[in-house]
Automatic annotation (TrEMBL):
Record keywords, A-Z: ATP-binding, Ion transport, Nucleotide-binding, Transport, Zinc, Zinc transport
The keyword S-adenosyl-L-methionine appears for this protein: no
Cross-referenced Pfam families: ABC_tran
Domain of life from the UniProt record: Bacteria
CDD domains: ABC_Metallic_Cations
Gene3D superfamilies: P-loop containing nucleotide triphosphate hydrolases
GO process annotations (BP): zinc ion transport
Source organism of the structure: Muricoccus nepalensis
Protein name: ABC transporter ATP-binding protein
Record carries keyword Nucleus: no
GO molecular function term, any single one: ATP binding
Domain ABC transporter: 5-230
InterPro entries: AAA+_ATPase, ABC_transporter-like_ATP-bd, ABC_transporter-like_CS, Metal_Ion_Import_ABC, P-loop_NTPase
Amino acid sequence: MSGAIRLRDVTLSHERHPAVHHLSGEFAPGSLTAIVGPNGAGKTTLLRAIAGLHPLDEGRIERPAERIALLPQMSALDRGFPIACLDVALLGHWSRTGAFRAIGLAERARAEAALEAVGLSGFARRPVGSLSAGQFQRLLFARLLVQDAPVILLDEPFNAVDARTAADLLRLVREWHGQGRTVVAVLHDLDLVRREFPETLLLARDPIAWGGTEEALGAANRLRARMMAEGWDAEASPCGLAA
Ligand SMILES: Nc1ncnc2c1ncn2[C@@H]1O[C@H](COP(=O)(O)OP(=O)(O)OP(=O)(O)O)[C@@H](O)[C@H]1O
């Protein structure tokens, strides 16, 4: 499976407020990378930019031609939507079928198998609004399974889920890595990152380190990220230049 993502001097902002500055590097095909950094470091903005959902101020992102799947932060999603679990899983087919092609039996079977794989067999007709946070996250992983993309971006995938759910979902992440997919996950649990993620990008709006996890998360790099975060000015213009 291919799936390299190359960033060339990427700068991102929100309404002229800085989010990510001059980031260059590569998520190699088949790599498993954590993005870590303080709150407000630009991690979510970067994932969205990689997925093509946030415009670039400067620079370039080279992505594979194939599909990129994004798991958004759970808190960013509206769960009051009146839709059943199977329909959410079926949405994973959308990028291939488009809005107007009918869903066939094979696609339905794939969605049902995905629900089973995440421990939600028997939930097909349940409205999403009735799910616990952990069950909902399992459902979003089922949708990722259906999407079957070579590049998978996960924004805080284990937030607000219990240990058993996190372990089950982590198993899927390992499987995706074993299948040669490129997986990038925003995470705050550094012990988990050290245990499971060979590569790490430490971001504090500016890139602090990008490479092997042990080295990227060394004490000096973590201190630098913390000091950068303490100095952030919410009103600063991108790159610290006068607007
Ligand atoms: N929709 C928005 N409008 C304006 N500013 C935004 C918006 N989204 C994010 N920002 C700002 O951009 C900066 C980067 O935010 P982002 O959510 O990418 O950081 P993060 O590293 O994912 O943070 P966290 O760990 O808290 O989720 C922050 O200063 C944030 O306040």
